[in-house]
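Forwarding the complex inputs:
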Amino acid sequence: MAERLEIRLAGSGGQGIILAGVILAEAAGIHEGKYVCQTQSYGPQARGGSAKAEVVISEEEIDYPQASQPEVLLCLSQKACDTYVFDLPPEGLVIVDSGLVPQLPTTKAVGLPFTKIAREQIGREMLANIVALGALAVLTRVVSLKSLEAAVLARVPQGTEALNRKALDAGVQAARRYLKSKPEKT
Amino acid sequence: MAERLEIRLAGSGGQGIILAGVILAEAAGIHEGKYVCQTQSYGPQARGGSAKAEVVISEEEIDYPQASQPEVLLCLSQKACDTYVFDLPPEGLVIVDSGLVPQLPTTKAVGLPFTKIAREQIGREMLANIVALGALAVLTRVVSLKSLEAAVLARVPQGTEALNRKALDAGVQAARRYLKSKPEKT
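Prediction (whole assembly, two chains):
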């Protein structure tokens, strides 16, 4: 992993973006012992129903906790994608829910149907955030799947562990299928 | 409210400190339309089981999202109190769980038995964080009780709404009793 990696998760309120940010941060910070800052900002725009969480993961102590130029952007809405894609560097990675973001920003963007997978394979649309985290871990390798699963299970409501584990695995499998289908990928 | 108020919540892992930070931020940011940044940091120290969340609430857009000098400190462990009390300004407010922090840092610190209240009045020790939020709202007036309740109910697991509402109210009542017992309080 690079010395400092900034990840931004964005979408609409109710999609579990904040929880996804907390889980990703705890996977890296508690389970892998990295230095992590996790931030969410609210303001008058939060009334419009948008949600954004940022995770900064570093091998060293973090001075400035907010993402200044995220290298990874996960978008669960077209609006989030349209808003934040320009903050990425050219080599940045955009991961989107292809069912909710019909207009991909570039041909390099990775589109996977997180919400559809959550609905059809897990029976719970609201687990799209966990599906997305599984895919993000495979695509970025920023945390191990073991750490991510431990962080997920520590945060989700009691009694939903099996469903969440299944959601995580569905995201992992979707991302692995994507990588296999892209032989030019490094 | 002051133009910018910084609040730090600290304790041990598993006490619901991070969730309390998210709820407080959403009460102010989503339900009251303030500008809010909410941050948690993890690092090698997180393995030691400590947890810390910071909420910066402002009438204006926030440039620097991390608490530089919190005016309000909520501590659910002696260790957290011993670590963070020195960051407060002299007029800062320290609120502690009096059952878990036997050694109050100053005579002005507010000690209330959040965990005992949660255990004895609600029957769920793990709701001490919600009890504490209710008290914090009364003692600081940083958010209205209506906004705080809405934010709590939006975040807690389905089926636990009534218990959480009861926990919030128990914290509110405890803080009101405290204020009544302190006639010199302004």
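The longest strand of chain A covers residues 4-12.
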